[in-house]
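How a chain folds remains the central question behind the approach discussed here. No coordinates are needed to read the tokens, only the vocabulary itself. For completeness, the protein is quoted in full, as a sequence line and a line of structure tokens:
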Amino acid sequence: MSDDSAKTGRLRLARGVSPWLFPTVAAAATTALLTRRDRRWALAAAPLGALTGAMLWFFRDPDRTPGEGRILSPADGVVQSIDPQADGRTRVAIFMSPLNVHVNRAPLAGNVTSVQHVAGGFLPAFNKDSDQNERVVWHFATALGDVEMVQIAGAVARRIVPYVTVGAKVSQTERIGLIRFGSRVDIYLPEGISSAVSVGEKTVAGVTRIDRG
């Protein structure tokens, strides 16, 4: 995967942001034009312009040079917890703040066997009970067996946008979905595979290795 956006200086935006971004851009442009007629419109134009800039930053989607590893991080963020599961798997939970890139990537190559939306609450993603929030549960058939990934909505993020559907064949680091305004992504390492990251460590989607070789 090339880093074309970095070479050209072009800002690439995530798919699925139009309902949020376009109205803000339109309002900012309209009030900026009205300011030419009446300076009092600047009271609205200035914050709308700042909001537009912030949203452009929030919804950025930079190209990445893939890292090396069997399982790569599906999300930008910070490792919140690493929890052994009763079935022998290990859950690595990655907290995404509103300042992180919100596009999630396939942690490894495989076929998408399930994309299940589960209704739930909207607790802050750092809350220990946030795994009961609104979420999308993914399953991938891979060379390592079934791998589960969960996109979890937070207190602000009320919308998860999958990019691919059941039956799709995905490559490692391929963009597979978006969580608007940050939250959490969990990746379940198959039995016998330990984590290469530690709690508090920063991760970069498609770059940071999650499994220990």
Q: What stands out?
A: Confidence is low (pLDDT under 50) at residues 1-9.
